[in-house]
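Is this the right way to post C-alpha cells for a design question? Let me know if I should format differently. Anyway, here goes:
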C-alpha cells in the first residue's frame, strides 16, 4: 500500500483477483474521499408547471476525483451502499444542501436523496434535526426523497421515523415512482407529500400510449390522495406541455436545466420569485 501523503488515509492495493481488487481500491478511494471531503453537491431545479417558478432544488452529489474528474453518483453511490460509507456521504450531502439552501430565497426548498441503507444505519430523525439546527434552515424548506425499497423492510420503524420528520415540518417525497414492485401499497401506508414519476414514463410521452395512460393515472391518483406530483426527466416542450395539460404539478429535467454547482444558481433562484 502507498501512503496518500496527507496523513488521513492511504490507498490500499491488495493482491486479489481483478474484480475484488477493483472493489477494494474503490472502497479505499471512497474512504479517502470522505476524509478529504472530495464530494460536491449540484442542484437541479424543480419547476412549477403552471407558473414556471422554481420551487425546489434537488441536491445531486458528485465526486471530485483527484484524477478522474467529476464522477457521477451512479458510479459510486451503489457501491457506497454496500458499506457504511453511504451514511457518511449522505450526511455530508444533507449538511451541505441545508447550508446552501439557507442562503436561498425563503420560498425555495431543497430536496435531498436519502438511501434506504443510510436511513436504517443512522438515527435519521436525530441527524436531520441536528443538521437543521446547525445550518439554521427552517424544517419546512427541506424535502427528503426516498424510494419505496425503504418501506419494504422494517416498515414500522421506518414509518415512525417518517412521521416524526413530518411532524418536525420536513416533507417526504416518493422518488422513482412506478419503477418498483408494489407502489400502491406504499401510497396507502404513508401520506407522502409528493410523488416523483420516474423519467422512463416522461420520456415515452409522444411515443408510447401506455406510458400516457400510466402518467395520467399517477397524476389523477396524486391529486385524489392530496399529494403533489413531479415528473422527472422532462427533456422537451412536448413533454412539458403534455404534463402541464393533464395537471401535473411540477417538472424536472434538462428542458429546464441540468444540475449546476451552488455558485451558478443565481438565474434559477431569481425564477423562484415567480414569473
Ligand atoms: P434521481 O434521484 O432519480 O435523480 C435524478 C437523476 O436524473 C439525476 O442524475 C439527474 O441529473 C438526472 N436527470 C435530471 N433530468 C434529466 C433529464 O431530463 N434527462 C435525463 N436523462 N436525466 C435527467 P444523477 O445526478 O446522475 O443522479 C443519479 C442518481 O444517483 C439519483 O437519481 C439518485 O438516485 C442518486 N443520487 C444522487 N445524489 C445522491 C445523494 O446525495 N444521495 C443518494 N443516496 N443518492 C443520490
Ligand atoms: Ca431523487
Ligand atoms: Ca428519481
Ligand atoms: Ca432514479
Amino acid at each position: 500500500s502507498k501512503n496518500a501523503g496527507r496523513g488521513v488515509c492511504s490507498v490500499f492495493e491488495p493482491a486479489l483477483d481483478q474484480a475484488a481488487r477493483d472493489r477494494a481500491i474503490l472502497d479505499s478511494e471512497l474512504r479517502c474521499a470522505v476524509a478529504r471531503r472530495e464530494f460536491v453537491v449540484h442542484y437541479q431545479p424543480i419547476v412549477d408547471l403552471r407558473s414556471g417558478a422554481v420551487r425546489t432544488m434537488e441536491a445531486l452529489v458528485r465526486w471530485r476525483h483527484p484524477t478522474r474528474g467529476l464522477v457521477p453518483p451512479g458510479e459510486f453511490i451503489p457501491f457506497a451502499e454496500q458499506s457504511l460509507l453511504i451514511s457518511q456521504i449522505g450526511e455530508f450531502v444533507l449538511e451541505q444542501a441545508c447550508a446552501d439552501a439557507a442562503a436561498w430565497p425563503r420560498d425555495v426548498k431543497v430536496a435531498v436523496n436519502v438511501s434506504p441503507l443510510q436511513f436504517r444505519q443512522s438515527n435519521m430523525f436525530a441527524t436531520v434535526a441536528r443538521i437543521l439546527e446547525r445550518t439554521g434552515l427552517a424544517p419546512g424548506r427541506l424535502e427528503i426523497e426516498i424510494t419505496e425499497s425503504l418501506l419494504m423492510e422494517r416498515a414500522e420503524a421506518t414509518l415512525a421515523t417518517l412521521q416524526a420528520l413530518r411532524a418536525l415540518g420536513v416533507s417526504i417525497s416518493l422518488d422513482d415512482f412506478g419503477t418498483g414492485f408494489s407502489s400502491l401499497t406504499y401510497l396507502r401506508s404513508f401520506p407522502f407529500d409528493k410523488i416523483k414519476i420516474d423519467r422512463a414514463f416522461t420520456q415515452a410521452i409522444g411515443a408510447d400510449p401506455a406510458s400516457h395512460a400510466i402518467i395520467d393515472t399517477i397524476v389523477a391518483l396524486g391529486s385524489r390522495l392530496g399529494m403533489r406530483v413531479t415528473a422527472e426527466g422532462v427533456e422537451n416542450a412536448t413533454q412539458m406541455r403534455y404534463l402541464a395539460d393533464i395537471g401535473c404539478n411540477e417538472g424536472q429535467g434538462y428542458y429546464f436545466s441540468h444540475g449546476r454547482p451552488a455558485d451558478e444558481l443565481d438565474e434559477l433562484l431569481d425564477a423562484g420569485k415567480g414569473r
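Format looks fine. Someone answered above. Worth noting: Confidence is low (pLDDT under 50) at residues 1-6. The pocket of calcium ion (ligand 4) is lined by residues 176 (CB under 6 Å).
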